[in-house]
Specification:
It contains 14 helices and two strands, in the order H-H-H-H-H-H-H-H-H-H-H-H-H-E-E-H. By secondary structure, the chain is mainly α. It has a domain of 156 residues: Chondroitin AC/alginate lyase (Glycosyltransferase, Alpha/alpha barrel). A hairpin with a 4-residue loop joins strand 1 and strand 2. The radius of gyration is 20 Å and the shape is globular. The N terminus and C terminus are likely disordered. Keywords: Lyase, Signal. This is Mannuronate-specific alginate lyase. It comes from Kosakonia pseudosacchari.
């Protein structure tokens, strides 16, 4: 039934394509930079993952805080999910390379790869556990946010691939329905960073497929997130992660910033929720970069700050400075880290968002 619903909605959406078109933020519609083109390396794409989405959690054996990494379980998780994460990197790298050079060979490479996964019905199998559902929505976030950059470019690089484009977008629509069925309407006590990432995947897919129903569903989850942010800018469900509470606040805000940018691009005020709760959350996280003591006081334990060693975890700041004014100290932090890239947020966010960042 999910597949039939997706096909019918896709057809109806295509018929209404010209009415109130959903748009990504302007940065996703940029032409490529046309830097000096390198020879295109298009390796063989990972084989489509068509199996059951049943994966080991990297926190297996941890207590209810789910904050103690199990190295053996983590190794198993990485091995089991390698075909999916390899495909995410493959797609993101090819789209980023195209954005830098404008080389049509990169487009051919990513179109053929995604068309192969679409034709095989990859990632549409049963999700047997939370980790399986998580992998589906993370992959969808990567594929849809990358595809948008080709779909909405003024160069129209997909014109040469009408059949493949239709096939890929039908498949993304199906994955969107599966993601909605797994992450929408959860009890509020269960809504946390995973739901926010699902909402971001759904939002990007809504714009790809021009599906207003998905757009509305993504906003529903976003608004729930805004209501979860307390007056001090904390997320109670992320504070449960004890020593990783600060890390998970940083992780939770990443998709919320992207949803806010896409909402604003389509006439929805992202600051309206719970008295601009997103700003409170962002300010608390940003202040934590220099002083994480408030998180330690809330949880009663010293915070694990290791996530700050990986710039991909700070790529959302490019979007933050587009939503809100950033002071000189934060702008300098970002400049020294560029280019900031995050595969699941769209790839090179410095390219996509930095040119339109707000200034004080």
């Amino acid at each position: 039934m999910v597949f039939l619903r997706a096909a019918l909605i896709f057809i109806l959406s295509a018929a209404a394509h010209g009415a109130e078109r959903l748009s990504p933020p302007a940065g996703f519609m940029q032409p490529p930079e046309h830097r000096a083109a390198k020879a295109v390396n298009c390796p063989a794409a990972p084989a489509p993952f068509t199996g059951v989405l049943d994966f080991q959690s990297k926190y297996a054996g941890s207590d209810s805080a789910r904050a103690t990494l199990n190295p053996e379980a983590d190794a198993t998780f990485r091995q089991q999910t390698k075909p999916i994460t390899d495909m995410e990197r493959f797609v993101s790298r090819q789209v980023t390379a195209w954005a830098q050079s404008g080389n049509p060979s990169n487009v051919t490479c990513v179109v053929n790869a995604l068309a192969g996964w679409a034709s095989a019905g990859a990632l549409t199998g049963d999700a047997k556990n939370h980790t399986g559902r998580s992998m589906r929505k993370w992959a969808l976030a990567t594929f849809s946010s990358a595809w948008l950059q080709l779909q909405d470019s003024p160069q129209h690089p997909l014109r040469a691939y009408p059949a493949e484009q239709a096939n890929i977008e039908r498949w993304l629509s199906t994955l969107g329905d599966l993601t909605i069925s797994e992450w929408h309407d959860l009890p509020r006590s269960k809504v946390n960073n995973h739901s926010y990432w699902a909402a971001w995947a759904i939002m990007a897919t809504a714009v790809v497929t021009q599906r207003r129903d998905l757009f509305t569903d993504a906003l529903d989850i976003y608004r729930t997130a805004m209501q979860q942010i307390d007056q001090d800018g904390f997320l109670p469900n992320e504070l449960r992660r004890r020593q990783r509470a600060f890390s998970y606040h940083n992780y939770a805000i990443q998709p919320l910033v992207m949803i806010a940018l896409f909402a604003r691009a389509n006439g929805v005020d992202p600051e309206a929720g719970n008295h601009d709760a997103l700003r409170r959350l962002g300010d608390q996280v940003i202040d934590g970069f220099t002083d994480a003591q408030p998180f330690a006081q809330k949880t009663g334990v010293t915070q694990d700050m290791s996530f700050l060693q990986h710039p991909t975890n700070l790529a959302w700041l490019e979007g933050w400075c587009q939503l809100y004014s950033c002071d000189d100290a934060l702008r300098q932090r970002i400049v020294h880290l560029r280019p900031l890239q995050n595969t699941r947020l769209g790839g090179d966010l410095s390219h996509l968002l930095a040119t339109t960042a707000r200034q004080e």
